[in-house]
Amino acid sequence: MKRKKLFLLSLSLTIPFAHLNYLQARESDNSAVIEVTKEETKTEEKINALLAKMTIEEKVGQLLQPIPFKDNSEPIKEALRRGEIGSFTIVKKTPMEPEFYNELQKVAVEESRLGIPMFFGLDVIHGFNTMYPNPLAMASSWDDALVERAAALAASEAAPMGADVTYSPNVDICRDPRWGRIAETPGEDVLIASRMGAATVRGYQGSDLSAPNTMAACVKHLVGYGAAMGGRDKQFTEISDRTLLDVYLPSFEAAANAGASSFMAAFNDISGVPASANRYVMTELLREKWGFDGFVLSDWDSVIELMNHGVVAGTKDAASTAINAGLDVEMNSTCFSHIPELIKEGKVSMDVLDEAVRRVLRIKYRLGLFDNPYRDVKAAYAAQMTDENRQAVREIASQTMVLLKNEGRILPLAENSSIAVTGQMTHTKDLYGHWKGYGDMKDVVTPFEGLVANKLKGMSVEDATINEVNADIAVVCIGEESKDFGESDNMADITLQPQYIKAVKDAKAKYKKVVVVVFCGRPVVLTPIVDDADAILIAWHPGTEAGNALSDVLYGKVNPSAKTVVSFLKHSGQVPIFYSDRLSGRPRNNFYNDVDANPLYPFGFGLNYSYLTYSKMRVSSNSMSKDGSITVSVNIHNQGMDCYEVVQLYTHDIVASVTRPLKELKDYKKVFIKKGETKVVSFELKASQLAFHNLKLEKVVEPGEFDLWVGSSSANEDLQHKSFVVTE
Ligand code: BGC
C-alpha cells in the first residue's frame, strides 16, 4: 500500500485531479490502479510531446470549431491541412455520414503536418435515428437504468456514423415552463437532474470511450440557462450565490463525477456575469474544486456574443476574456483566431493556451482517435434503426407516459369496447419534439396507427376526425406541435391552445367517456379540460414508436409508472411554482385572489392501474450524528395488478441559519410490486444528504430537527411523516 501511495505522488504533476481522485478511490484494487495510472501517464506524456511540436497557430486550431457543409468542404479541408481546425459542430444541413467523416478525418490525419485527428460534435439529445422521448419525458420515468439504456442506444447509432461528442445531457434546472427549452431538461428538481444527468453520461460513454459505439458527453449549459428571466430564451438570470450552489450547480457536479468528458458554457448571464466569461464556474469550481480535466466548449457564438452582453469591446477582447475564464473551444465564431496576437501582447499566457489544447487532446486520446481515427462505413449503416432498437424505444416511451387522471378507472381500455379516436394529433407524425437528430418523421407510428394495430379482442377503433363514429369512448389526441416548444420557442401563456380545448369539449358532448392524450413538451395548463376528461395521459412527444407505446399504455399491456418531474400548474400566471419553494414569513398571503398557490398536479405525481397502500413508515433511529445515517422504511401493499412504483423520500430542515425549501427530494426508488404483494422499501438517509450552503457559503450539515416524508408524490396527502434530529 505504501509503495502505491508513493507511486501516485510521483505522478501527481502530470495526472489531472479527477484521475487522482479516481485512483485514490480505487486504492483497494491494486491491479486496476496501476494499470489505469500507466495508461493515463502515457497519454499525458504523448500530449506533452505533441504540444512541444505544435506552433501557436496549430494550438489555436485545436480550439476552433467551425460548421462544415458539403459545399464549403474544400476551404475546410485546406484549413484542416494547415492544422487550423480541431473539431466540427455538425448541424442537420451537414451530411452526417461516415463517408464524409472519413473524408475530413483523412485530411486531418494524413495530410496535416502533425496528423492530429479531428472530432465531430453534434446534438444527439434523445436518439439519433430511432428516436425516444425528450429528456423531460425521460426523467419522468424516474428510472436511472432506463435513461442510461436509452443513452447507450443513441450512442450505438450515432457514434458509428461519426458522432464523437454529443451535446447532451442538458442538466439545466427549469422552474419556468414558459421557457421553450424545458423539454430538453430533466425538470425542476436538483436530485432528479443530478441522477438523470449522471445516468445519461454513463449511457453515452459506456465503460470504454474508445469503443465504436460510445461517444463523449458534453454536459450543458453551464450554468443557470433554465432560469432565463420571464422564460424568455437567452435572457439574463438573477441567481444568488447560494441558489447557484444549492440548486443550479449540483447536477453539473454529478455529471462531472460520472466522468463527463466535456461541458458547454451557456449563453445567459448570471447576475451580471455571462456564463461564457465566468471564471468562478469554469475554472474555480469545475476544474479546481471538482477536478474536471476535459474541455469546456462555448455554445454557438457565445464567445462573440460577449460583445452583445456589453462586457467586452471587440472580438479580441472576447477571446481573451473567454479563454482566461476557462473556456477552451469556440463553437462557430472565430474570436480565438486572435490568440496568437494576444499571446504576443501578454494578454493570454502560453500556459493558458497549452492547458486548453491539452484538454482537447486528452479527450481525443480517450476517444481513441489517435489509434483508430476512421469509421467503419458498413457497420455504421447496419447499426441504424434495427428492429431491436425500435422495440427498445417502444418500451422506453411507454415508461415515460404520466397518467394524471383516471376517473372511474376508465383506463386501461377493455376488450370489446368501442373507441373513437379524435383530436388534431390523431394522425400526426410530428412526435419527435425539439432536436430531431437525424431521425426522419416518416418513421413515426402515429397515434391512430398504433391504436388500430394493437387493438384488443372485440375492440372497435375508428377514426372520428372526419367521420361521425358511434362509440362509447373517445380518445382525444391533442397537445403541442414541435414548433410550439424548443430553442427560442417560448410561450407567455402555457395553457393548452384553444383549438385543443375545443376538441375535448366536442368529444365530451358526443361520447360517454373521454380519454385525453396530451402530446407536449412542457407541462401545459390543463385546467380548461380537466373536468371534461375522464382520463388524462401525458404522452409527451414519444418518438418513433409513439402510437405503439401509446396503445401499450392505454390497453394495459404496460401499467403506467411515470411521475411528473415538473409541477403542472393551474394557471400560467402561477409561474414559477415548484414543490421546493421556500417558506415565507406569512404563507397565508402567498396566493392570488383568482388562483391559489397549489399546482393542478404536483411534482412526483402519477397514477397507475393498481391499488397501492403505503403503511408503517418507520426509522431506525430518531437521531443521527452529523456524519451518521438512519434507515427509513415503509410497507407498500399492492391490491391490483403487477406494477412499478416510484417511492419518494423528502426532508425539510425545520430551523436553519438560512430559509430552507419546504420539501427537498433526497432519494427515490422505482420498485416492482407484484399483485397481492407487500413490499418493504428502505432508504439509507445520510446526514451528508442534508447539507446546504450557509451564510458564509460553506457547505454544512446543521444540527436540529428535520421533517421526513415517504410516499408516492410530493403532496402531503400522498406522504407519511416522521421527524428526526441531527445531533452535534
Ligand atoms: C444550443 C445548444 C446546441 C448548439 C449546437 C445552440 O444554439 O443552445 O444547446 O448544442 O446550438 O447545435
Task: Give the helices and strands, then pairings.
Blueprint: H1 2-11, H2 17-25, H3 30-53, H4 56-61, E1 64-65, H5 73-81, E2 87-90, H6 98-111, E3 119-122, H7 135-139, H8 144-161, E4 165-166, H9 190-205, E5 216-222, H10 241-248, H11 250-257, E6 262-265, E7 269-270, E8 273-274, H12 279-289, E9 295-297, H13 306-309, H14 315-325, E10 330-331, H15 339-344, H16 350-366, H17 377-382, H18 387-398, E11 402-406, E12 418-422, H19 447-453, E13 460-463, E14 473-479, H20 498-510, E15 513-519, H21 527-530, E16 535-538, H22 546-554, E17 612-619, E18 623-625, E19 629-638, E20 643-653, E21 664-673, E22 678-686, E23 692-693, E24 699-700, E25 704-711, E26 719-727
Parallel strand pairs: 1-10, 2-3, 3-4, 4-5, 5-6, 6-9, 12-13, 12-14, 14-15, 15-16, 18-26
Antiparallel strand pairs: 7-8, 11-16, 17-19, 19-22, 20-21, 20-25, 23-24, 25-26
Total helical elements: 22
Largest sheet: 6 strands, parallel
Strand content: 15-25%
How do the strands of the widest beta sheet line up side by side? 2-3-4-5-6-9
Structural class: alpha/beta
Ligands, deduplicated: beta-D-glucopyranose
The number of distinct β-strands equals: 26
